[in-house]
Each structure stands twice: as C-alpha cells, then as structure tokens.
Amino acid sequence: MLKNKQIILGVTAGIASYKAVELLRLLTKAGADVHVIMTRSAQEFIAPLTFQTLSANPVHTELFNLIAEREIGHITLADRADLFIIAPATANVIGKIAAGIADDMLTTTVMATKAPVLIAPAMNVNMYTNPIYRDNEERLRGYGYLFVPPEKGALACGWEGEGKLASPESIFEAAVAAISPRDLRGQTILITAGPTREEIDPVRFISNHSSGKMGYALAKAAQRRGAQVILVSGPVNLPAPYGVELVRAESAREMQAAVMERSGHCTIIIKAAAVADYCPAVRSGLKIKKQSAELSLQLVKTPDILAGLGALEKRPFLVGFAAETGNLDEFATRKLKEKNADLIVANDVSQPDAGFNVDNNRARLFFRDGRILEYPLMSKDALAGLLLDVIGSEVTARLSS
Ligand code: PMT
Known about the structure:
Helix content: 25-40%
Number of strands: 19
Radius of gyration: 25 Å
Largest sheet: 8 strands, mixed
Shape: elongated
Structural class: alpha/beta
CATH topology of the largest domain: Rossmann fold
Strand order of the largest sheet: 12-11-8-13-16-17-18-19
Distance between the termini: 32 Å
CATH class of the largest domain: Alpha Beta
Number of domains: 2
Strand content: 15-25%
Number of helices: 13
Bound molecules: ligand PMT
CATH architecture of the largest domain: 3-Layer(aba) Sandwich
C-alpha cells in the first residue's frame, strides 16, 4: 500500500516526539520514502540526526536554508508528497494552520501541498478540550484535513485524560487508509471473526482453532477502503483494528444477538467466524468432578446465525465462509442454498498451510448464478483485498440492476 509513496512527516514539539521515530520506522518498513520536517522546538526533544538516519533523507528544519531553497525546497517537497502526516501535532501548529499562518518550514509546506494531510494531535487535556482548539480542529476537518484522535491516559504534564498521542500503529493505519481507494465508502459492513466458546462448566468449554486472522484482515481492509466496519469477534488474541467498532461475543448465542441487533444497519455481512455447531444442552454451574471412567455430554444445536440472516425479508448482501475437509464444492453449494447466502467463500482446511490459525489461505468462491472463482494460496491480507473487490462489484451490480 505504501510502497514507493512519498510521505512528509512533520514533527512538532512534545514529549511524544519519540513516538514519531517508531512511526517513521513503520512507514519505511512498508516501503514509503519519508521526508521529515521538524519545527525548531521539536529539536529540543529529539535530534534531527535520528530521523535522518532512519529515513535515509535529509531532515528539513529551516525555511531559509540556502542549499534546499535553491530549488524552492518547501514547494518541491509539498508537490511530490502523496501524504502529509503531522505527528505529534501541538495545539500551536494546528492553530497556525487553521489560521492560515505559514511562518516556518512545516506550516509553509502544509499550506502548499495538495496531498491529504493527516494530523495526530498531542497536548494537555485542557488544551484539547479548549473551545479555541476545538474550533480550529473543526475548521480543518471542514477543509478535508484528517485527524487521528489522541488517546485517553496519564499525560506527561501530570493530568489524566484525552491528549496522549495515538499509537504509532494507529497513525500508520490511518495513513494507509488516507491514501487507499475509498471505494467502499457508504457501505456498513459487519464482519464476524474467530471461534465461539460453548461453556461446559465454569472452567471448560467447546471451541475450535480459529484465530480470527481471516475476519480481522477483512475488517482492516474494509476500514481502509472507507467502509464503516462493525467487527463481531469471538475470543482471540489479536489487537483491535484501528477505526473499527469492535463487539465481543463469547458463545454462538451471544454472537447471534450481537449480529442480529446490528444487521438492520448493514449493507454487507461477512461471516468469517467459526461458530460452534453444537453446545452443551446444560451448562453445569459447578466444575464437573472426575468420577466415573466415562462421561457423556449431551449437545444441542446452536442457532445458525447465517441461516437466520438469510431468512430475513430485507437482508444485506450476505457472504458466508465454509471450512471443509472434503467435498468442498458439494458442501459449499449446499450451504449457499440452505443458508440463502449471496456468496460462499470455501476453504479447504485439511491442508496445514491454509485455513485455521495460519497467516495464509486459499479460497474458492461460489456465487448464486453458478459462477466459481478460485484463488491460490496467499496471505489472508491479500485474500481480504480480493474478496472485498468481488463483494464491492457484486453489490454495485445489484444496485444498478
Ligand atoms: O480465524 P482463522 O484462524 O483466520 O481461520 C479462518 C477460518 C478457517 C475460520 C475461516 O476462513 C472460515 O472458514 N470460517 C468459517 C468456518 C465455519 O464455521 O464454517 P462452517 O462451514 O461451519 O459454517 C458455514 C458458515 O455458517 C460460516 O460463515 C459460519 O460463520 C456460519 N455459521 C455456522 C454455524 C452457526 N451456528 N452459525 C453460523 O452463522
């Protein structure tokens, strides 16, 4: 996504300036060519040499640098940028940009650029909630400037509250989203991910090997492409994706409630979760003690969430997954019909290199009109991108028919 992109990283003064170093590392690792501009005060917190070494580009600190300004350096920089990030951004620099003041290298270059500008504020909580600051941010949002909101927490100034610079990972995600095609803007996509846990007693449960990677990759990719994303997730060990509404659900019943409650607002639902098909008929309130040599558990069917969605009178575009260990085509086509889905993404989970709890997957897509599309082994991130291409064009075709 960021390969060979020209990114300007503006760094202003603040104790959080050190996090800009980590952000620079993430950007360069993703293949971006990053040019850093530092304000004079930022250099009190961190030396330009750090950014210069990691970006492999000279750091810009002065507007009237005779060598750089031979070619009107700030305009050249502004023109070639694909994206302009300011992190951390002080109340001062945000106020200056909002007021049209261009009196140093950073503010002059921001004023001159046509690239999207992404601002990650960091400041004291009282400054952040000050109506003057709020007006400035609103004004810039109105002009199309993008913001990564600060986090809540203990601030360096001793106060507690909003104002802590967003994590480098969140700013990185927002940067990718800022230059990605926004072809899914206007869509509300609900994605389920991970396993469910069906409790036997307070210490034991029935579950499966789903890691949530496939569903989380879809959520991340859809958010980047401008969709409003609701991720209903079973218990997994993955960080919450940036910009996504995360709803946690443990059991199939909890997942069903979370999905059905929100389904009315959605244009697309993608069910990548591995929902348990059966749960114990009775959950023991106390830990079951080891007594006889054998123990039988009576299981009953869990609600079929996908089939429930398929039965809705007014339903969103429905994508189901099918995890199979044999007869892939037969079972996938049967699920497509029985669950009344628009598309089934079938994966052969008998292969150790794809499916459950690995980074890669291979998929075969089954459409209602009989078409079949096949994708070879690839990363779940790459597959998520291809699936969203297909889903996006199916939804557009449906709207125009
Ligand atoms: O999470 P990962 O480690 O990344 O692994 C990804 C995956 C293998 C889990 C994923 O790619 C996948 O195949 N998910 C669906 C697994 C599954 O439960 O398939 P199924 O054939 O049992 O179910 C078919 C469809 O019905 C699925 O969309 C499932 O979410 C849905 N279902 C199933 C049972 C149920 N009670 N309610 C449902 O909605």
